[in-house]
Every structure is written in C-alpha cells, then in structure tokens.
Amino acid sequence: MLLTLFGLLLMSTIQKASSLYLGDCHHPLGMESGQLADAFITASSSYVPNVGPQNGRLKVERAGGGWCPKLQIESGVREFLQVDLQTTHLVTGVATQGRYDHGRGQEYAEEYTLEYWRPGLSDWIQYRRWDGKQVIAGNSDTSTVVSHRLMPPFFATQIRILPHSVHRRTVCLRAEVLGCPYLEGVVSYKIPAEQSWEPGIELGDVTYDGERHSTHLAGGLGRLTDGLYGGDNFKLDIGFGKGNGWVAWRNDSFPRNYVELIFEFDVIRNFSSISIFANNWFPKNVQVFSKANIQFSIGGKYYNGRTVSYNYMPDLSLENARNITINLHHHIAKFVKLHLHFASRWIMLSEVTFESEPLPQNYSLELETPGSVEEIVIFSGDAVDLSWDTYGTIAEPSGSQGSIEIVIGVLTAVILLLLSVFTIILVLSRRQKLHGSPTTILRNPLNIKDFFLNLTSVNGMVPVGGGTPCSQQAPPSDPSMCFSTEAQYVDINATAEKDPIRSDDEYIEKDCMNVFADDDIYSSNVYSLQNTPLKASCAQSVHSLGKQTLSSEHIPKKKRYHTAPRDKHRVPPEASWNISPSMGQPYRCREVELTVVPRECLSVLKTLGSCHIGEVVICETEEVDDDKTLHVYARSQRPECIRELRMMAGLSDPNLVRVLGICTEPNPPWAVLEYPADLGDLIKVLQNNCQTLKYSCLMFMITQIASGMKYLESKNLVHKDLAARNCLVGSSYTIKIADIAICNPTYQKDYSEIGGRPPAPIRWLPWESILLDRYTCSSSVWAFGVTVWEVLSLAKDKPYPHLTNDQVIQNAEHMFYDSELQVQLSKPVMCPLEVYEIMTDCWKRDQALRPTFKHIYKFFKQKNFDCLGEL
How far apart are CA 266 and CA 189, in angstroms? Predict the structure, then answer.
C-alpha cells in the first residue's frame, strides 16, 4: 500500500503522455545546435580524422567541414553516418548538405537511403517512402540545404544515413534529423493481417516495421501510431496514394465478429483514456465499431481484473471520421488488449492514442493468476461516465449462478415488454397527430397582399431593398456616402446592441405574426390551401394592399406555429446548396413553414445561369404601386431537399438574404429569395469604383459580412462559398450574404473539380475542405479571411493569381503536412498590419486556433467605429 501511495505521489512529476500532432513534430534534434554530443554521432568509417562523423553537423563549419567515408560510394559499397538519439523519437524529416569547408569542399551526396532501429526491433529497418521507394534525393552542390519531409514518419532511437550512388564517386555530407520525442510509450502493437479494400486502394498496415505473418503482424509500429490521420473519403488520393492513413478489416474474416489489437508499452503505466480515430463512411459499409472491450495486463500473459466495455451508438447521419474517446479509469498495465466488434462490413482505423502516465520503477507488480472475477462497465454514447467507486468486487458462490441467470432473464423480459408498450404508445400518438393536421408540406398559400406584408419592416426587421443592416433608422440615400469627404455613414455600432440576436422561438413567433396578422387571416390561409387551388389573384391582392395594415391589437398572443415534430430537427437536413449544417456540430436551426408564392406573381427578367446544383433566374414581382417593384431570385430546389429550404426560411438576419417562400408550379419547384442587389455584387462594386471607394467604406462592408457570418455561426451553419461574389450590395452599401454566384457564368473559372467531386471554390477554401471535404465554422472563417483580402485588394486579382488550380491543391497539401513550402496570400497595399494579422489568424492550419466570427465581428466593429470617427 505504501509503495502504491508513493508511486501516485511521484506521478505528478512525470510527464504525461498524449496524442501526437505532426504539426508540432518537425524540430531539429540536436546535430546543428550541438545538443547531441560527439559521442552520439558515429560512422562506419572516415577518410581521415579531420572529416570524422563529429563534423557531419548541418550548417557547422568545423575541421574538414563534414563527414567523408573512407571508401568511394558505388553500387555494393555500404558506408553510413549514425545518429544516436538516446530515446525513442518520431522522425519526420532529414536535411542534408555537402562539404563546403569555406569554399574548398567539392563533395556532396546526390542520393542517400535511411535505416533505423529502436528497442524491440531485432535488426535495422530499411526505410521506405509511401510509394515503396528507398532512395531519397540529396544535394546538387556543397552549400545548399536540402530538406525532406518523410512520408510516412517512423519511430527510431538510432538512425543511419547511407550515401547512395550507382557510379563511383567521392561523397561527404552534413546532416540534421528532424522530429520530436515520443512520450506515448507504445513499444509495439499486434493486429490481424487483412487484405486490401480493392486494387489501387491500400488499406493494410503497409508501414508496419515489425514481423509479418500470414495471420497477424507483431513486434512493430505502423499506421495506427504515426500521427497521420486519414481523410473521410479514403478513396481520395491527396498525393500519397488512396487509402493512406487507414487500416481496415472485413467482418467475414473474423468468425467471432471482432478484431483484436494488443498494445505493448515501455513501462507499467496508469491509463486515463484511449482515443480511437475511426471512419464512418456508412454508404460504403464502413462504420465505427459497435462495441469495444478493453482488457489490461502487467505481464502480457493474463488479462485479469476489470474489463472496460464501451457501446457506441451507430451514427447513420454524418459520414465524417471521428475520434471515440473512452475513459480507462486509471487502470495499471503494461499491455492493453482491444476487442472491437463490427457494426457493419468494415472497421477502419487511422490512429489509436493513449493518455497515460508512467509509474515509478518501485511499483509493486500485481500477482497474475489465470482466473479472476471480471467486472464489466458499459458506456453508451450518451451515458454518464460512472465512477469506479460505485462498483465493488463481489465473489458469488458457484451454486447461486443458476438463480442469478434466471433473475437476469426475467428482468430482461420485463424491460423488453416495457419498451414495446412505450413504442406502441409513441406510434399511436404520432398517428393521431398526423391525422389531426394537414399532411402537406406547404400549408400557407400566399396571395400577393400577404407576400408583401411579410416583407414590411416589423419588429425592427429591415425592409427589402433598403435599410441599414444594423440600425432601425433609415440609411442615407445619398450615394456620396462612400466617396465624399463629408460622407454621412450609418453607424452600425451605435445601434448594434439594440437589436440582439433573438432566439429561434422569437423569430418563429414574430415572423408568423407578420404573415398572420390576426386569427381570421390565419384561418383563411389554412382553409384556402385545403379547399382551393394554389393560384391566387394577384390583381385583387394588390388592390387591397393599401387598405390593411398590421396592428398590434390584432397580433395573436402566445401562439407559435411549428412545421414538424421537434425530434425531426435533431437530424440535419440534406443540403444541396452551400449554406449547410457544420460537420460534427449539433443541429441548432428551427425549420419554419414555407409560404407558397403563386407563379403568376413572378415575372422572369432573365436567367442568371445554371450549375450542377440547379438553375437561378432573376424575377420581378407585380407592381404594388405605380413606381415600385420588387426584385427576387428563384433557384430550383430538389423536392427531397425541402427541409433545407425550411431551415433557410428560419434564418433571419439583416446581413443574410431571406427566403421568401416557394413556388410549387415549376418542376422542380422554385425557392424564392430576396435579391437586394441595387448596386450589383461586391466584386462589381469594387471593380467599378476602385478609384473612388474609401477605406472606411470597405471597413463598413467587411463589418456587415462578419455580422452575417456571426449569425450563421451561432446556428452552427457554414457557408461553403463565402466570397465577395456572393455578397449582394444594396442601396447605401448595405451587404447581404447570398448563395448565387456558383450559377453565374461570370465566375465559372472560380470553381474547380477536386478528385471527382463537384466544382468548388478552391482558392477560397481551407486545406481540410479541399483535401478532406470537411466543412466546419472554422472553414468559413478561412474563407472570410480570403474575402477580406478580396475587398482590400479591390478585387483586382483572384486569390493566388500566380498559381494554377493544380498548384492551389498542391499548396493545400503543403498546408496539410505543415510543410515549409506552403504559400500564403500577401498583404494588400491598403491593408493595415493589424487587419492582416487577423486575416493570417483565419488561415492557421489548426482549425482550433482560428478565431470565431464573434471575435472577428468585435474586431471589425471597433475598426469600423474608428474609421467613422476619422471622417
């Protein structure tokens, strides 16, 4: 007991092992700096002591200026420079240099190979790249440093660099090894062998460096611990082969329906948790395991004691890969065994990482016996993680085993019976609700009177075609606002706090009040849908528009209208356009009823264009008075994506284009949205007024974009095509974010296909969207940074104008691997340094380090205030 307490006290002084992040694992390991002593740098031979291995340090001019082997290098000659790192490191790169010797040297290695060793390996391992090649390109002169990012990386304690040449030549070299210490402590793991998914897609553990048998792999490390996370789409080749990063097993190869993995560690450890990164591409029969049983052992022979059992709730909504973290309740072990049960045909893993702490050497070993009472704790996806203190080890007499089984069987039957009764009651209740209400999706046909009443400025909302984005006051109509030295701006800061973001319930209630001004109007609308055709009389509606107004005394109190049961909103709708729910985030949007817009109320002005999603047309509504019309745009909507439109109709923000309704007569139906583009899109405004637009006006428009995106972020929604071309500019330079540019042939070259996927705006997208097809709120933050770059560059060039589309994708690969070759957008001429700094924050590789739109809006709100103060 004393030894155990002493060990627990010492654990606080021992560094805790955590999962790898390759972006922080590419540092020099001590050859150039001298951190590695000369005794740890050896060689097979040296030409003379003056060019011994101690001189083979990168960028160091000492003695002869490098290491030179005794023999000339040719086919069959083996010479090497050996580096001893003392402890196990993850090696991610190698840098080499020739012998410069203050201009006197002439020798360098054109090519070289690598070998490595660590405790647990029986012999030195020949390093192979992801494509199977062993030879690595070296130097072409004596002074230039050539650095290579190793793909895949490897775990090593000692490394050998072997010069290579087909023809005889004299070589000398200086070198540095790049990487980081490996603290997780995994010495090796054992996994079953499995065939690849299909020809051309390698889903075996091809980088495994241990022993390979016909049935299993043992004694080495590979893909499951190298820190490389596979993408959601394992069939997508991002430059390192299809299937890179994944190891897969098929259920028909395992009669017991589970895969067994055994991990061995360097010392006895106290385990806090395990994280398993698994694929969930269920359309391809790949799912996260249904159950994980985790056992522990000190000596690796007996896995006695408590078994952690974890049940995973299947997810058939989101296809993205994810981390499953399981609490291990501070088990003490040196060996950890996993049994992962199949939920579908395939289990596909990328990384298995542990949170653990090594125990001191004087920790007393437990007595290993082949038999022990096993205690199983089950954790479901939503269950509370219970403490082990609530469980005791109870040994039951063998004679009572039969009675326990009977009790368990009876309890199970009772639980199943109660669940059946509950299910029947739920189904009957659901049917009763459905029979008591209209079954159609669209309950509210709209005559033109109601159509325009719904667009009036009520409850502080902005009138269509005008009004300020953040103020209830009317904006100045003088277009000199952004050009005159005495411009009068709308102060979006003075009133921003007066119009806080309302809750979903408030939006639904107040928007319904706009359309349904009193109970009679609401009743007549519902009745008309059930008993009359959808067409309405536009002329009659226009005639009566001026005779009725919304009165507060007619507004019904405490009434809310919902379109569907709340539980349906838990699953995000299928999105065909670019505003969609964020991956891996809860669905927060409320879906509201769609207002039916009669076809005769829409007069088509022109067809904007079409794309793979659908077609967009610009329409004009029938005149309400003699001198005013309303422009809207209609886009085709797939019938199966009506919920997407309901979601969009529930959004209400001054800087976001609003959904006005749906026109059901075309096939497919049209989604009708406002088109407040009095001045055109933001690209045209910037290009046509580049000589007269002032910096303060640009800040004014950028702040509005940030405000609209802050609202989308609050709903966990992303905009996959955020760019200046999708920002519509109204009178007084008000901005509304739309999703229309993809159909505009003017911007067709802004979109490019990626690996067979539909065209995407790759110059505005972050690396995770380009390579992994992953879209989150932080992805929209990246696109916002590019949009700010467009605005402050006055849209004179596309982002990365000097790169082709293929080079943009290659640049995303450099960002993915945190390479030094990645290119970033330069600072525009009229961009202040502090604004450029927040732009570069938006472009950080790590999504967690990018700012939120709440922070961005706060920054630009202050900048806009400062700009207005300077006028």
Answer: 12
DSSP 863: H
Mean pLDDT, the chain, rounded, equals 78
Cβ neighbour number for residue 30 with a 10 Å cutoff = 18
Binned at pLDDT 50, 70 and 90, residue 156 comes out as very high
| Mean pLDDT along residues 219-229 | 91
Report the alpha-carbon distance of residue 306 to residue 289 in Å, rounded.
Answer: 21
- Half-sphere exposure (Cβ direction) of 807: Cα atoms closer than 13 Å: 10
Give residue-wise pLDDT tens across range 653-691. 999 999 988 888 777 788 899 998 889 999 999 999 888
Q: What would you report as the CA-atom Rg of the chain, rounded to the nearest whole angstrom?
A: 33
Task: Give yes or no for a cis peptide into 153 (omega within 30° of 0).
Answer: no
Find tokens 């654990």 and name the residue: 11
Write down the pLDDT at residue 509.
Answer: 36
Q: How far apart are CA 535 and CA 515, in angstroms?
A: 18
**In terms of C-beta density within 10 A (0-12 exposed, 13-18 middle, 19 or more buried), how is residue 593 classed?**
buried
Closest among 26, 135, 160 to 85, alpha carbons compared: 160
- Closest by CA to 229, choosing from 163, 139, 152, 173, is 152
pLDDT at 439 > cutoff 60: no
* Cβ burial, residue 534 (10 Å; 0-12/13-18/19+): middle
Backbone angles phi, psi at 538, to 5 degrees: -65, -40
- The pLDDT score that the predictor gives to residue 498 is 38
In this structure, the number of other CB atoms found within 10 A of the CB of residue 809 comes to 19
Closest to 790 measured CA to CA, from 701, 862, 850, 719 = 701
Alpha carbon distance 211, 219 (integer Å) = 6
Structure confidence at residue 405 (pLDDT)? 78
- Ordered by where they begin, the domains of the chain are 27-181 (2.60.120.260), 186-362+371-379 (2.60.120.1190), 579-674 (3.30.200.20), 680-870 (1.10.510.10)
The β-bridge relationship of strands 595-596 and 444-445 is parallel
Evaluate if pTM is beyond 0.70. no
668: cis peptide before it, omega within 30°?
yes
- CA 303, 309, 310, 314 dihedral sign is positive
